[in-house]
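Lab notebook: predicted structure, single chain.

Context: the supervisor wants predicted structures on file for every construct in the current expression panel, including those that have not yet been purified. This is the next one on the list. No modifications to the sequence; it matches the entry in the shared construct table.
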Amino acid sequence: MTEDSVVPVEKPTIGVIQMVSSQRVDTNLKRAEALIKEAASEGVKAVFLPENFAALGSTQTRSIAEREATDKGPVRQFLVEQAQRYGCWIFGGTLPVPVRLDGTHIDSGRVRAASFVYDGAGRQIGRYDKRHMFDVDVDDNQKSYRESDTFEPGDQLVVVDSPIGQVGLSVCYDIRFADLYRALFLRGAECFAVPSAFTTVTGEAHFEVLMRARAVENFSYCIASCQGGIHDSGRMTHGHSMVVGPWGDIIASCTEGESVIKCKLDLASLHEMRKEIPIESGFKYGFHQ
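Prediction complete. Output recorded below exactly as produced.
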């Protein structure tokens, strides 16, 4: 353990926020502020926000992103202030930014869906850019989704050292790709953050089983803060934010609409499971090189 390592709390409490975000940033920040206040009470060590919490379905994604090009952007400053106010870590869902991790500007007109993490002092600890783009056809009211028209995919894996353990960062559609979570596991992840905006159709069919699968196959916690309801853009999202334990059990969940759920994580129990069933030893046979 280095001098900069964070010693995790033995059984940390987390708060998971579900929203029904609109297309208006100012409206969403006001709702997020109230929900963070509720979630961050009573010794909570980390709060999780959903995908696109500051603007869902907006046609102004690029202009919103341009304001977030630096850490002085209004949404990024909001996250800093919330972390400082409550002294807890904030896993900031996603927001659009026009720059890559290396600082280069994206000139194609697209943006990155960036997931920022701040510690209790408001310092940026990590950033993950959504890797898998939601380019699919779904039998719902929108019918077709082409996320890659607006967003450029990220290309890096990120695990952050936090008071709730080593957290591997991912976003929504990533959950379908098991190799991403195996790679995060091999980098030390004990928990996976999965901020999401699943459609009602795919969510009802697949969301829970995917969450439980990623948890069980890596003996890790899966933490999903979701969008859940009918949005002003007309989009319908599944909700059902949940925390899945490393044994595959759902230890906290909600249904639709705005909500806050809280639960404790038991990292000692997680490592006991990994010791009893040492899945990492199986990776030496070549499929996970």
